[in-house]
Design goal:
Blueprint lengths: L7 H15 L8 H5 L1 H11 L3 E2 L10 E6 L5 H6 L4 E2 L2 E8 L11 E3 L7 H7 L5 E4 L11 E6 L2 E6 L1 H5 L4 E2 L1 H5 L2 E2 L3
Parallel strand pairs: 2-4, 2-5, 5-6, 6-7, 8-10
Antiparallel strand pairs: 1-9, 3-4, 7-8
Helix pairs in contact: 1-3
């Protein structure tokens, strides 16, 4: 099957998004890249490459990304379903807040203001990587906080949560992140 033609704009966006994720090391961040929802989706899905899930076969043949059904990013993630994450096609599940913790997810993404302590508490002992740009997310039990301070992208990881979690977060991801609470 021939590979689909990629427009110059899409190629450019991919390049910016790849650079965006590389900025986790603390390089200057183009404010436009952070605001671009496609770049946020790219950054979130690339995080999954640095995590191993226990008993992954129990989660099925697809990479299950869960997002609240009222999250403004839900459409952006749905547009990327089928993207390969960890060798599996990504499926996107828009869940009501009450469904989190009751349905299996590899990754749960929450936009700013949508990561309630109740939902995060329900996911705490499940093999689910929780990610959000919400300020203080990693200090309140979330695993990975996407932070943009002074024009730089930073990953903030609650190392205690990561160490005591069923997931295995790679040393590479820990090395480019900041510990929560700093």
């Amino acid at each position: 099957m021939p590979s689909p033609r990629v427009s110059p704009r899409t190629r450019g966006l991919r390049l910016v998004c790849t650079a965006f994720f590389a900025l986790a090391a603390g390089w200057p961040l183009n404010a436009g890249a952070w605001a671009d929802p496609q770049c946020r989706v790219e950054a979130v899905t690339r995080l999954a490459g640095f995590v191993r899930w226990p008993n992954d076969e129990e989660l099925g043949l697809s990479f299950r990304l869960c997002i609240r059904d009222d999250d403004p990013m839900v459409g952006e993630f749905i547009n990327k379903r089928g993207l390969t994450v960890g060798g599996k096609p990504m499926t996107v599940h828009a869940l009501s807040p009450d469904e989190f913790g009751k349905r299996p997810c590899h990754l749960a993404y929450f936009s700013e203001g949508l990561a309630s302590p109740v939902i995060i508490g329900r996911l705490r002992n499940q093999p689910t990587l929780t990610v959000s740009p919400q300020r203080g997310f990693a200090n309140r039990g979330g695993m990975v906080e996407l932070s943009r301070d002074t024009g730089r992208l930073s990953l903030i990881i609650d190392r205690a949560t990561a160490a005591n979690h069923p997931l295995h977060v790679s040393a590479q991801l820990l090395a480019i992140s900041h510990p929560a609470g700093e």
